Each structure stands twice: as C-alpha cells, then as structure tokens.
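[Discussion] Sanity-checking designs against the backbone

I'm trying to build intuition for which residues belong where. Below is a structure token string of 304 positions. I'd appreciate it if someone posts a full sequence so I can compare it with mine line by line.
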C-alpha cells in the first residue's frame, strides 16, 4: 500500500516532463512520469522491445526518455483521465511492484505483452478491434488499385463515407474470415449512393503463419510507391499504431472479388423510396446483403 501511496503523491506533485524515482522499489528502478496530459509509471526495458498498445483510456508504450541523466528505452503505463488518477495508481503499483526477489519485474521484462493481456482480461476490457483483417483487406485493395494504375485516396480509416475515392469511382471494401458465408454489412442507407460509379471489393481471409500482415502490406505499398506517411496516418486513425500487436497478425488471402453496384445490385437508396419516402424519424438503416448469386469479377493478385 505504501507503494501505491507514493505513486499517488507523485501524480499530484509532478510537473510536465518530470520523472520521480519510486523509493519503495529502489532496488528495481521505476519512476512516476508526467508527459503532456498523460501521467503514469515507467520501467526500463531492453532497447529491442517495441510496444504500442491502448485500450479505453490507458496506454502501454515504449518510448526513449532521458531520466536521471541517462537515455534509455522505457515502458510507459499511462492514462490521461486526471480525475481517476488515484484509482489508476493501483494498476501502476501492480505494474512496478518487483515481487519477491524481483520475480514479477523479471516476468514483465521477459514478456511485457503477456502482462498487458492479463491486465486487460482481469479488468474485463476488450480490444477496440480484434479483426485486423478488415484493415488488411483495405490495404490489399489499395495495393491492387495502385499497382493497376488507379489513382485513389484511402479515406476509409479517416472517417470517410467510402474506403477509397477517385475522380470517377468510389470503392468499398468488405472482408471476412467466414469460410463459406458471403454476407456483407451496409452501415447506412446512403453508403452505396453517390454521383459516381461504386464498386465493392469482397475479400476472404484465413489466419495463417504463411499469410501477410498489416506491416507486410505497408512495406509492399511503400515499395510500390505509396507515401509511407499517408499509410501510417490511416493506420493510426484505424487504431493500428506502429508496433501494435494487430499489425503483425498474418492472414492468407483465399478469394478476392469485385462487384459493380448497378441497377441489378440490391441496395437501399432514396430513389427507391420516391413514392412514399423514408418514414419520419427513421434516421439510419443498417442492412445485410447476401452476395451469393450476384455477378462479380474474380480478381487475382500476387502477395509474394
């Protein structure tokens, strides 16, 4: 309890950009740290450890800091919820407590992500997105479009109404890991409506050690000529910052289709409500389309 109290005092007294050594764990160095609007605790880890995770209002990230006159790689457990700092101090205490003969500290140094996963499970929280294949699908579609000479902007991860847009065509990307299901979700009655041609990519994946990851596709896009900063901006907006674990999960592409959203494609658009109009107070319609039986082009792409 004395460790938690020391952490709380540090949270209350520290100024921005300052670190305070924790005396209760003197033999196993740890510090209270304030950086900008965030506050938390840090421990030093090996320089090859790279982590960038978050859930709710908590971050778990490695950063280079100069503390006590020495530059090193630190693992920073932080929050920006100032009114909950006393409660957060309890989690920080569990993180920096070295345990008997430093055994708990050794566990974190050897497997820092395991501690993070156990802590999230204990608190009953879930990842924001446990399905990186959705973002991977957009990146595969981007690679296909770009390498086939299509000039598009990737806007889906930056709250765009579609995933990709060009001067004359909008593209939506739908991905699944279901082996046989070909259902797609449409998030609003106007998602497939606009003044341009609209096309839908449908990709089927399975998780596999022999597949490709978000990081793999990022490098392929850069090699093909896409600006790395634009890729990273979209990934950050989608919750996949550099070194986050979802970026390394690998999926094998089983199938890739391209559908034209034309008069034969089943959609809900305002013109089809011309006679009666959309009922008053209905502000959003989500619906599911079964792609089975609809015309499509079977696409082939090399991800080697």
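Best answer:
Here's mine. Compare freely.
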């Amino acid at each position: 309890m004395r460790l938690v109290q020391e952490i709380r005092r540090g949270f209350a007294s520290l100024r921005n950009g300052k670190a305070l050594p924790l005396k209760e764990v003197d033999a196993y160095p740890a510090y209270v740290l304030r950086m900008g609007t965030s506050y938390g605790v840090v421990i030093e880890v090996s320089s090859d450890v790279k982590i960038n995770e978050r859930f709710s209002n908590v971050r778990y990230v490695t950063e280079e800091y100069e503390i006590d006159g020495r530059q090193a790689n630190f693992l920073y457990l932080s929050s920006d919820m100032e009114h909950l700092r006393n409660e957060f101090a309890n989690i920080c205490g569990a993180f920096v407590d070295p345990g008997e003969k430093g055994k708990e500290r050794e566990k974190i140094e050897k497997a820092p992500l395991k501690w993070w996963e156990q802590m999230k499970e204990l608190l009953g929280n879930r990842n924001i997105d446990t399905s990186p294949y959705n973002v991977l699908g957009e990146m595969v579609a981007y690679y296909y479009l770009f390498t086939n000479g299509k000039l598009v902007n990737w806007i889906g991860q930056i709250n765009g109404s579609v995933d990709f847009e060009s001067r004359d065509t909008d593209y939506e990307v739908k991905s699944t890991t279901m082996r046989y299901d070909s259902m797609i979700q449409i998030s609003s009655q106007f998602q497939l409506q606009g003044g341009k041609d609209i096309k839908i990519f449908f990709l089927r994946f399975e998780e596999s050690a022999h597949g490709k990851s978000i990081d793999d596709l990022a490098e392929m896009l850069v090699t093909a000529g896409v600006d790395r900063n634009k890729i990273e901006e979209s990934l950050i907006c989608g919750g996949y910052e550099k070194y986050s674990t979802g970026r390394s999960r690998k999926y094998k592409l089983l199938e890739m289709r391209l559908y034209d959203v034309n008069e034969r494609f089943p959609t809900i658009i305002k013109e089809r409500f011309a006679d009666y109009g959309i009922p008053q107070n209905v502000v959003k319609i989500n619906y599911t389309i079964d792609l089975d039986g609809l015309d499509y082009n079977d696409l082939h792409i090399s991800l080697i």
